[in-house]
Amino acid sequence: MKRVIVPGSLVEHEKNIIIEDTLKAEVVTIEKIVDLANRGNLDSLLPDVTLERENLFVNEGTPHGKVIWVNKGSKDEVRIDFRPKDSTKVLRATVKGRHNKFVSKTGVKTGMSIDQINSINRRPVDFFGFKWDFSGVAKFNEGALEDQDLFIFFMTDKKVGKRFIGDMPHSFEEAKQAKLDLYVNKIIYVPTTNNKL
Question: Could you tell me if residue 18 is inside a domain?
Answer without folding.
Answer: no
